[in-house]
Amino acid sequence: AQKITQTQPGMFVQEKEAVTLDCTYDTSDPSYGLFWYKQPSSGEMIFLIYQGSYDQQNATEGRYSLNFQKARKSANLVISASQLGDSAMYFCAMREGRGDYKLSFGAGTTVTVRA
Amino acid sequence: DTGVSQDPRHKITKRGQNVTFRCDPISEHNRLYWYRQTLGQGPEFLTYFQNEAQLEKSRLLSDRFSAERPKGSFSTLEIQRTEQGDSAMYLCASSLAGSRAGETQYFGPGTRLLVL
To answer: Residue B16 CA to chain centroid, in angstroms?
Structure first.
């Protein structure tokens, strides 16, 4: 079964506007972590933001915020005030359990920011 | 410290040849991971090390693949008798055990392999 689902293959957003990227996950483990990474065309995966399953508040990092809805098993990324440099592929990933360290990734969402 | 580095960045080889990739993690990181990413997909886990011990291998890692981390610092990933299906981006990541933020993994720039 797919552990991470990203249903939006591609999105367009106008510069300076906000965009929300969807991510749903599947796990029966009460302890897990959710990550978002950005991958520009150069290929390097850049860490953006982390949300732990026990965190009480939604994570924020600068223009990135995570809308964590535990009961719905969703962890959507919100990018505010989009910039041209935000054009990239975005991946949601999960690490399950306390003894498991590998990440399971979704298929990604391509974001294109228009001037 | 400049982050995770990988060498080479690009590799073109003929089917049947052996290739070896190198990864240098962030210096204080004791965990090191290899992932494979095919076009249009998310990365898939291959294997990981804690210090020099290889603790987990994916079933994606066939007998033709071998990874080492001999002194708990850099790691190599070797593919023997390459096949066209091995063409992919090979990503290395590292993390520090017990660090904050879910022990975030930091990735290198990847090695793009093309098997002709």
So the answer is: 20
